[in-house]
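DM between two lab members

TW: hey, do you still have the N-acetylglucosaminylphosphatidylinositol deacetylase entry open?
JB: yeah, one sec
JB: this one, 158 aa:
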Amino acid sequence: IVLLIFRDLPDDPAVEWDTQLLATLVLKHIEAKNINLVVTFDAGGVSGHANHVSLYAAVRYNVCRLLWVPPWADAGSSWCCWCRVLVLESVNLCRKYISFLDVLISCLLPRDALFILTEEETEQAKRAMRCHRSQLLWFRQLYLLFSRYLVVNSLRLL
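TW: and the structure you got?
JB:
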């Protein structure tokens, strides 16, 4: 199954993943690990990254497909009865790169959950990003300096 994932789900910002395949893999993982909360990207994928958008589509596919459980069905047979989904809000380019200044804006706008990272948590996230040298291109260096996502994250229930 690992070979299938690497071949059919490549880490590539230009490749859209197969919704049904990914939905199946995600659902199997949720059921196997008894997960009750999924946090994923919204339809914008934060940066338009095709893999992120595909992940949202797969999770949404599962939610829409399993949202209604007929009265005669076993309630335990559907993840929607016990698993909630939060999606990370994609914001416009200006808000995306104003770092901590977006905290005030985020506090004023409607959302279901708001996470404001401490300075220590922000530094931990930056250290984690720096561990992935192959991913740390020049524009991600700017991301580390200016991104609001390293300081504040607003989410909504799917």
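TW: got it. The chain is about 45% helix and 15% strand. Residues 92-153 form one domain.
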